Amino acid sequence: MSTSKAKSKVQPLSDQEIQQTYSRLQNELQSLAGKIGELEQEAEEHGLVLSTLNEALQGEPGRKCFRLIGGVLVERTVKDVVPALQTNREGIKKVIANLAEQYTTKERDFETFKRDYNARPISRA
């Protein structure tokens, strides 16, 4: 009984609408994957900076360092910058986790769409 309900939920779409929806879902997945990759790179860069600054924090917590904030280079001390960088990195990691969850949901929707409409990429020779 549930299979007949599932089949009745699928709206008939024209070939052009199926192709447009397929392309849109595929582009959304690629966009999410690109953003996740970009943020992972940024988190990695934060980690590299933090590892360097943690060494300075052990030796000279009052040492000068410079930080780019909103396009303005500001002078701070290592002990001031390290906690802010750690907070930023944790925030980036949370955003990555959220985007990964969105990606999984979108991927599931895409697979359902492909299965419901028997959609597959057109191979042009």
Q: Main sheet: which strands, in order across?
A: 1-2
Give the rounded overall mean pLDDT.
90
Shape by Cα distribution = rod-shaped
Low-pLDDT residue intervals, each spanning 5 or more residues: 1-6
Q: Helix count? A: 3
Radius of gyration: 23 Å
- Work out the strand percent: 5-15%
Concise structural overview:
With 125 residues, the chain is mainly alpha-helical. The chain contains 3 helices and 2 strands, in the order ααββα.
Features:
125 residues; mainly alpha; two-stranded antiparallel sheet; 74% helix; 10% strand
Write the layout of secondary structure elements.
Elements: H1 2-9, H2 15-59, E1 64-69, E2 72-77, H3 78-117
Antiparallel strand pairs: 1-2
Textual characterization of the structure:
The protein is mainly alpha-helical. It contains 3 helices and 2 strands. It has helices at 2-9, 15-59, 78-117, and strands at 64-69, 72-77. Strands 1-2 form a two-stranded antiparallel sheet. A hairpin with a 2-residue loop joins strand 1 (64-69) and strand 2. The longest helix is centred in the N-terminal third of the chain and has 45 residues, at 15-59. The radius of gyration is 23 Å and the shape is rod-shaped. The relative contact order is 0.13. Mean pLDDT is 90; it is low at 1-6.
